TrEMBL record:
NCBIfam families xrefs: sigma70-ECF
Biased composition (Pro residues): 202-213
Keywords: Sigma factor, Transcription, Transcription regulation
Region (Disordered): 90-120, 185-219
Keyword Transcription in record: yes
Domain RNA polymerase sigma factor 70 region 4 type as annotated: residue spans: 133-178
Keyword field contains Transcription: yes
Organism (species): Streptomyces noursei (Streptomyces albulus)
Annotated GO MF terms: DNA binding; sigma factor activity
Feature: compositional bias, Basic and acidic residues: 92-103, 111-120
PANTHER family, alphabetized: RNA POLYMERASE ECF-TYPE SIGMA FACTO (PTHR43133), RNA POLYMERASE SIGMA FACTOR SIGZ (PTHR43133:SF62)
UniProt xrefs under SUPFAM superfamilies: Sigma2 domain of RNA polymerase sigma factors, Sigma3 and sigma4 domains of RNA polymerase sigma factors
Stated name of the protein: RNA polymerase subunit sigma-70
Length: 219
């Protein structure tokens, strides 16, 4: 998955979207659709729902390119924040609809509220962990994948990467420090997501293709 683009690319993309360049939306989709779909799927665990979130996110970006502030971070991070926010909102709505359909409508018990918040927190944390792993520098990501997904110890990791054992330990330590921020992240970005009213000239992003097995990594 691609890392953050240079800030100049982010600003230029925002300007092109603000001018209504449909080709810019296509380029943005090609770059970030897999990210959006995998994060949404990580939260919702539903292919169709992830497809809908993907379309909604790119529809929102097309209608509101000025909502992005380059001073607040990269375009990739902004897109990921919109996705997590929208997916969590959809999860809340899905749980509420499920409770109503099962005849449990009415004031929720404290226990059911805690269970819902736990589920949302776990889903959001998993999605953020996926994003962190795919965004971290390749040397750190490779060390984590060898040590934790392929069960290599730090000596084997060092040999596989062709680095010293001290360097392997350093990469693992830094990677784990970055990954730990997923669990410390309490609040999602406050991104207002209004329903997009499509006009006759509003381009529709192509139907998202599944990003591949695992939908974002085995975290």
């Amino acid at each position: 998955m691609a890392h953050d683009a240079p800030p100049r690319w982010d600003r230029r993309m925002q300007q092109r979207l603000a001018r209504g360049e449909a080709a810019a939306l296509g380029e943005l989709y090609d770059r970030f659709a897999s990210l959006v779909h995998s994060l949404a799927h990580r939260v919702l665990d539903d292919e169709d729902a992830a497809d809908r979130i993907t379309r909604e996110v790119f529809g929102y970006i097309w209608e509101h390119p000025d909502s992005y502030d380059p001073k607040q971070g990269s375009l990739r991070s902004w897109v990921a924040g919109i996705t997590r926010h929208q997916a969590v909102q959809r999860l809340r709505q899905t749980e509420a609809d499920s409770a109503r359909d099962s005849g449990e409508a009415g004031p929720a018990s404290a226990e059911s509220e805690r269970e819902l918040e736990r589920k949302i927190h776990e889903a959001s944390t998993a999605a953020r962990a996926d994003y962190i792993v795919t965004s971290m520098p390749a040397p750190l990501r490779e060390a984590l994948e060898l040590a934790y997904f392929q069960r290599r110890d730090y000596r084997q990791t060092a040999a596989d990467l062709g680095v010293t054992e001290d360097e392997a330990r350093r990469r693992l330590r830094l990677g784990l420090q970055l990954l730990s921020t997923a669990h410390n992240h309490q609040a999602l970005p406050a991104v207002p997501m209004r329903r997009v009213a499509r006009g006759p000239h509003t381009p529709r992003p192509p139907h998202p293709a599944p990003p591949g097995p695992g939908h974002g990594g085995p975290l």
